[in-house]
Amino acid sequence: MTTLQQLISDLERFATERDWQPFHTPKNLAMALSVEAAELVEIFQWEDGQRPFADYDLAQQTATRHEVADILLYLLRFCSVTGIDPLAAAVEKMRLNAEKYPVETAKGRAKQVGNVAD
Amino acid sequence: MTTLQQLISDLERFATERDWQPFHTPKNLAMALSVEAAELVEIFQWEDGQRPFADYDLAQQTATRHEVADILLYLLRFCSVTGIDPLAAAVEKMRLNAEKYPVETAKGRAKQVGNVAD
Amino acid sequence: MTTLQQLISDLERFATERDWQPFHTPKNLAMALSVEAAELVEIFQWEDGQRPFADYDLAQQTATRHEVADILLYLLRFCSVTGIDPLAAAVEKMRLNAEKYPVETAKGRAKQVGNVAD
Amino acid sequence: MTTLQQLISDLERFATERDWQPFHTPKNLAMALSVEAAELVEIFQWEDGQRPFADYDLAQQTATRHEVADILLYLLRFCSVTGIDPLAAAVEKMRLNAEKYPVETAKGRAKQVGNVAD
């Protein structure tokens, strides 16, 4: 089974073999990541948002999977060059979010609605 | 040690406890993810791109770690509601990228420069 | 009445007075513009999309107006440093779009739905 | 000479002729605008940022002009459906920015560097 750490190593080798490290600055990788996020948004931009994902046609589902992969790959590459541990960062943020959005007050509060992260 | 699968479960419970599932459509989560990606971009927008990340001040480093976490959390939440396996998708995409950018032709080619994903 | 050209001049003076020109590269301004676009997206990310804009609360309407302004300002600043004429570019693109999406075939076609630009 | 107001009218007719108004909600148009902004970012993502725009190859310059157009067109379409006057909004925001970033304190301040809008 592939792990995040293994993907990070594979991406490092992939970039090194192609002499791409000089381009992989945090700034450039943040840009590339945001471009992939926009490509995910593009798939859904004219959708009404209520159709179950399983009802999307196969081409859209495949495109979605590829964009998810692209985002994860650039995120891991970004973590690699900045030295950030993505899982540790996520666990820390989950804890902060639990404090920021207590169940009692967050429930049904329109203002905060849906914020898994902020 | 926390795993991706465990984070996905924690996020599901977090959303359920707050009655946020109706807002967590693939469309809305793709939007939220792209907003977090932009917040990461914002940290670097006036940087010249050459300064080592370790030289950034502590507040910027912390903000960066939080944005990385937000992106990962929304990505996992998106995977949760669409049924996409992020690691399997990344492995599949890595294989496609290796075919698309062979070492020999990709090396130093300006056009493709730096594309870990596309 | 203020014109686009006047705004462009005002922005140039604003940047010059603050010694900000070195930061206003096309790359950095494209990033800044995308961050503002994401801030506009953020306002609508948990909305169902059907509520008329006039029914939004005043704070949301004001925030929306400010984000529209920010996007236009960065777009004009980008045009200023690249020498692009935004109105001429838009007229040219409208013509290309009319060819790409003829009324007869575009009407009701799900695939192209809603693309004013592409 | 084409004006912003004329472009807004042309876009309205363009959308009406194709039955696209139902898709042109503020939410969807904000998404589409952010996707176009990302396409502009993509052109610059591996650039070092110092090369003068006039030195870019012709294909890149043309692509840049088209993305600028797409952003402006979606911004105007967004203004059309929300009733926002883009020029008035920009003038108002310029005034707020002048108060927020006074010349004396903003000059050379790293924190605020380059913020034409915020």
Explain this structure:
The structure is a homotetramer of 118-residue chains. With 118 residues, chain A is an all-alpha fold. Chain A has two domains: 4-84, MazG-like (Helix Hairpins, Orthogonal Bundle); 86-118, no CATH class. In chain A, 65% of the residues lie in helices and 0% in strands. Chain A has five helices and no strands. Chain A has helices spanning 4-17, 26-44, 58-82, 86-100, 103-106. In chain A, helix 1 crosses helix 3 (58-82). The first copy, chain A, is globular, with a radius of gyration of 17 Å. The relative contact order of chain A is 0.11. Chains A and B meet through helix 1, helix 2, helix 3 and helix 4 of A and helix 1, helix 2, helix 3 and helix 4 of B.
Layout of secondary structure:
Four copies of one chain form a homotetramer.
Chain A: H1 4-17, H2 26-44, H3 58-82, H4 86-100, H5 103-106
Helix pairs in contact in A: 1-3, 2-3
Summarize the structure.
With 118 residues, chain A is an all-alpha fold.
